[in-house]
Amino acid sequence: MNIILDYVFIYPLNGGIAGAAYATIIGQIVSLLLAMYFHYFKCKIIDNKIRYLKPDFYIIKEIYKIGLSAAIMQGLLSVMMLGVNLILGFVGKNSDLLLGSFGIYYKIQQFALFAAFGLSNTIISVLAFNYGMKDNKRILDSIKFGILDTLLVTLIITILFELFADNLATIFGLASGSNGSSIIKTCATAIRIGAIGFVFMGISVAIQGVFQALNESIKPMFIALLRLVIFLFPFVYIFTLNKDYNTRLIWLAFPLSELLTSIIAVILLIKELKKRDIIYSFKSLLINRAYKKD
What we know:
By secondary structure, the chain is mainly α. The chain has two domains: 1-54, no CATH class; 58-286, no CATH class. 78% of the residues lie in helices and 0% in strands.
């Protein structure tokens, strides 16, 4: 809805920035109404009558324990957008070019990000079920194949983005005005360089889902902070210091942040699984040799 209405409000209706905002709001409302329709009219597994809603405050607390950190993780996307915009705003003569290109790149990379989040949510459901059963082999299967599936999807998206970077930049950059051709060219470069990091992003996001399934809230939020703020902001700032090449170097900040975050995420995951007596080495995670105390 957002993408379709962006076009309708910006072009035929000439709505500009306000039109894009309306498209976002309407998209959110439509998705809410669809979710309510499926839940209340199509879901036959549970009875949704209001009289059966009996609050259990322990369950509510557990939901917020995980849900609050997940909400903060989503909010960090806006923090990242704001922070990068502020840094790029100080570049000088190329700031408008970089800001316009980053705005388009941010929209496009959400295809990969939300695909990874969708798989991460599936990992949470499947892994939490098996963790509750205390079946270590199935826990390891859920983790291993969840991460591998996410890697596969993000790799496919990376290949597609590399192949069609110019086309994607052109479609999303049509409304860029007199500076449009420069923005489209810079955005295509941003897509090609930034897409390299999608695979590493898939690892980090999948591991965030693993931690959430294991009832952890701080570690997934820490991983999100690493990839969206702690690593990214310094890299963006450092690469903007080179005034001659910043329009190309700036985009290296994204795959570098994703790479470093994924390494730390893997280390945190292995330590957590060892602490819970689920594995005893990295090799045991790969070949599903679960550790069980006698």
